[in-house]
Write a structure and sequence with these properties.
Elements (H helix, E strand, L loop, with lengths): L6 E5 L6 H11 L3 E4 L1 E3 L13 E3 L2 H9 L3 E7 L2 E6 H9 L3 E5 L2 H10 L4 E6 L3 H11 L4 H15 L7 E4 L3 H17 L1 H7 L1 H6 L4
Parallel strand pairs: 1-7, 1-8, 2-7, 3-4, 8-9
Antiparallel strand pairs: 3-6, 5-6
Helix pairs in contact: 1-7
Length: about 210
């Protein structure tokens, strides 16, 4: 079904800067709303329930799966992540633009359901920089960092499945690129026709 709102789906390997870019975009564009995913992993640092993620027990997550409450869900780095079907559909059905941070598996699955979803992949400028960012983050052991780098090879190979790719070398430039993608999507004929349906009908544009 065509909804008037736009759905932007952002994926990246750990350490590429996805969350920082999305946060910066939302500070610049108040018209875009975050879609908060559910996860079984524990909070990191200053993360809060309902802000970065809804943190669930495995049993709570199982219950949502059984109720078919997730648009998609997947195993990522040893934990489960899911996207609430109701949260997404309600917002874009009311003309809201929604941005979702998710893994590449979930992004591709969402595109199958919402064909108008805009998939954006964030790449690091190099393997060396990706390793350095993971180390500077200070959240993972050396063993976990190596696992994340190994998984990153698989994840980045899927960038070809996405509509847009941003290389996050200079943060300010990457934010500009992300904002440009959002603005350009809103001006596409198909997006304008969905968002401004009454205007198109009044102008007799099919």
């Amino acid at each position: 079904m065509d909804y008037p709102g736009n759905l932007f789906v952002v994926a990246a390997p750990s350490g590429a800067g996805k969350s920082s870019l999305v946060k910066a975009l939302m500070e610049l564009d108040s018209a875009i709303q975050p879609a908060v995913s559910h996860t079984t992993r524990p909070p990191r640092g200053q993360e809060k329930h309902g802000r970065e993620y809804f943190f669930l027990s495995p049993e709570e997550f199982d219950s949502m799966v059984q109720r078919d409450a997730f648009l998609e869900w997947a195993h990522v780095h040893g934990h489960r992540y899911g996207t609430s079907r109701q949260a997404i559909e309600e917002r874009i059905a009311h003309g809201k633009d929604v941005i979702l941070e998710i893994d590449f598996q979930g992004a591709i699955n969402i595109k199958r359901i919402f064909s108008n979803a805009v998939l954006i992949f964030i790449l690091p400028p190099s393997w060396e920089e990706l390793r350095s960012r993971l180390q500077r983050r200070g959240e993972d052991s050396p063993e976990v960092i190596e696992l994340r780098l190994k998984n990153a090879a698989t994840e980045m190979a899927q960038a070809r499945e996405f509509d847009f790719v941003i290389i996050n070398e200079l943060f300010e430039r990457a934010v500009f690129d992300l904002k440009t993608i959002v603005h350009a999507q809103r001006l596409k004929f198909s997006a304008q026709r969905r968002a401004r349906a009454e205007t198109f009908r009044a102008l007799q544009i099919p």
